[in-house]
Amino acid sequence: MIKTSYVSRTIAELKPSGIRRFFDLAANLEGVVSLGVGEPDFVTSWAVREAAINSLEEGYTSYTANAGLFELRSEISKYMEKQFHVSYRPEDQIIVTVGASQALDITLRTILNPGEEVIVVEPCFVAYAPLVTMAGGIPVTVQTSKDDDFKLTPEQLEAAITPKTKAVLICSPNNPTGTQLEQAELVMLADIVKKHDLLVISDEIYAELAYDEVFTSFAAIDGMMERTIVINGFSKGFAMTGWRLGFVCAPKEISEAMLKLHQYAMMCAPTMAQHAALEALKHGMQDVEEMRRSYRRRRNYIVKSFNDIGLDCHKPGGAFYAFPSIEKTGMTSMEFAERLLKEELVAVVPGDVFGESGEGHIRCSYASSMEHLQEALKRMERFMKNHS
Amino acid sequence: MHLNEEELEVLRIIENNSRIDLKDLAKMTELSEADIEVTLKKLEDMRVIVRYLTVINWAKVDEYHGVTAMIDVKVTPKRGVGFDEVAKRIYRFKEVESVYLMSGAYDLSVIVEGRSMNEVASFVSEKLSTLDSVISTTTHFIMKKYKHDGTIFDQTEEDKRIVVSP
Ligand SMILES: Cc1ncc(COP(=O)(O)O)c(C=O)c1O
Fold first, then answer.
1. Does the C-beta of A171 come closer than 6 Å to ligand 1?
2. Across residues A308-335, what is the average pLDDT?
3. Mean pLDDT, rounded, for A100-121
4. Res A236 pLDDT > 90
5. What's the gap between Cα A214 and its chain centre?
6. Average pLDDT over residues A110-123
7. Domain B58-144, what architecture?
8. CATH number 1.10.10 given to B5-45
9. Could B164 and A349 be called an inter-chain contact, meaning their C-beta atoms sit closer than 8 Å?
10. In this structure, are strands A228-233 and A199-203 parallel, antiparallel, or unpaired?
11. Using omega within 30 degrees of 0 as the cis cutoff, is the peptide bond preceding A324 cis?
12. Would you kindly state where each structural domain of chain B is located, as residue ranges?
């Protein structure tokens, strides 16, 4: 009998993601219409794929600079300036990463001393709290409320701050709620952040998918540039999830420290994907615009349809998720999602996997064809009738 | 003529699916069904929306016998009316699918459909090249259609994503 575990206590104690369990349930059924997919339904544009193929033909198969191709960092710098009015030097403030995921990882591992706290705003992307834990920090979760459209209020932020707080991790537009924070709201949060000398880690991976209000980067708020780490990437807006390419922009002191970690742990992001991303930034903005329009239509469609069938749904400003309330049915999110899957073969994600405050809701991704959405709605309407 | 954002959005949607349900179109654009009807009527009256067509891949149908040719036509324009008059003389033939005025080496691009190459050939020699203003014609027969009006004929891309993901 083995007495000692070969797995570290930190990892052993991590909870497996609730999404995984749901995937296992859904993957074993035939004829499922899925609203559970957290990625674009578009295939990466041909021009971008072609650029990657060309880079292979040309023999670009070696490492790049640790921070990524200089040309790509220059394009990212121009892109950030043009889209979000924030200026980062390609020389020492931008690192190309393996998705926003790795950007989050190296950010947290770079800034945290053991035992320091990061405020994590729930409901949120499932990786945040585990990433904080694995970086030796302590995630302090704040539960936003449906009554505030799942927006972090200044009072909530203030109340969560302790002497050990190092940073606040915020995602807007949000996964899973789709909520987008407005500029005025960012300003109020920024005042508190400045007062307590904290950092903001701003996950802006859905920045390109804002449908009603112009997206404002946290770094663009007065006085926030020097205390904001911007996480972004190509997965969502450019429909490039499988390429695994993201980037992080930060004040020089932090990005130089991050680069140390990145060069030891990763060397560099995949070269082929970097060439693809370069093409996407240079000539792909028209495609982004068309995809944004297409998601917006589907958002309008799904939100109106949910409300019509008795699923109360606030209209989310961005990303590609609707987060309707299922409280009326008297079921928990997990019950609702499991029964909907069993009875009608529609996959959604129970809201509580994104944090306690997601209970009573389900995440429905509308990154799916109109035909799929229509079919899902038909089945959900029947389900709601059978359970009212 | 200037269109507003709602009108443009309706056009963008129906351009790819003119059979879309009015209810769904209303939901997607956040307009009422009545407003959509008014908008469509207006666009039709202005002949911005000209006709609702179906893209058919006839090559899959055994009963279909037909050929398509693209003909480059050089003409002498007429004083006062330019190319419009000769274009009109050409597009009125029922065999003619499309007529475009072109920049470059020739003037009009004419697309003709017939039941056989012979039929197209006699149309060109008897009807088209005998017109007074026509100087010369070059006929290209289409061998295979891969993509037509933005639609790839052979495409059946399945969804390659995993069913549930973060
Ligand atoms: C909020 C959020 N952040 C980060 C990621 C990870 O993105 P990437 O593919 O760039 O690693 C996701 C993906 O679902 C996400 O939803």
1. yes
2. 97
3. 98
4. yes
5. 18
6. 98
7. 2-Layer Sandwich (3.30)
8. yes
9. yes
10. parallel
11. no
12. 5-45, 58-144
pTM of the model: 0.94
Instruction: Name the closest-CA residue to atom 13, ligand 1.
Output: B166
Residue A144, min C-alpha distance to chain B (Å) = 20
Nearest to A301 among B17, B24, B157 (CB): B24
Q: How far is CA B105 from CA A328, A376, B77, B81, in A?
A: 69, 53, 15, 21
pLDDT tens track for B75-113 = 998 888 889 999 999 999 999 999 999 999 999 999 999
Per DSSP, the residues of A183-202 read: HHHHHHHHHHHHHTT-EEEE
Give CA–CA dist A231/A140, Å, rounded: 20
All structural domains of chain A, each given as residue ranges with its CATH number in brackets, are 9-44+286-386 (3.90.1150.10), 46-284 (3.40.640.10)
- Of A349, A373, A353, nearest to A362 (Cα)? A349
* pLDDT level of residue A376 (50, 70, 90 thresholds): very high
Q: In the predicted model, what is the mean pLDDT of chain A?
A: 97
Interface test with A, best of B33, B159, B163 (most A CBs within 10 A): B163
According to the model, what pLDDT value does residue B120 have?
A: 97
For CA atoms A261, A262, A263, A267, the dihedral sign is positive
Which tokens hold the place of A6? Answer: 């070969």
Reference B161, options A128, A83, A369, A330; nearest CA is A369
Helix-strand-coil split of chain A, %, nearest 5? 45, 15, 40
- ipTM metric: 0.90
pLDDT of A3 reads: 64
Please name the residue ranges forming H helices in chain B. Answer: 5-16, 22-29, 33-45, 84-91, 117-122
Q: CA-to-CA distance for A160 and A157, rounded, in angstroms? A: 5
Interface touch B164/A17, C-beta < 8 Å: no
Write out chain A residues lying below 8 Å of B28, CB-based: 297-298, 300-301
Whether A138 lines ligand 1, by a CB cut-off of 6 Å, is no
User: What Å distances lie between residue A323 and A112, A354, B32, CA to CA?
Assistant: 32, 11, 24
Rounded average pLDDT over B40-63:
95
A-chain residue closest to B157, CA distance: A43
Q: Which amino acid is at A132?
A: V
Peptide bond connecting A139 to the previous residue in cis, omega within 30 degrees of 0: no
Cβ A293–B27 below 8 Å, yes or no? no
- Compare all CA atoms of chain A with the CA of B24 and give the residue at the minimum distance: A301
Provide the shortest C-alpha distance from residue B68 to chain A (in Å): 28
Name, in order, each residue with C-beta under 8 angstroms of A201's C-beta and a sequence gap of 6 or more: A104, A107, A108, A118, A167, A168, A169, A170, A228, A229, A231
Residue located nearest, by CA, to atom 15 of ligand 1? A125
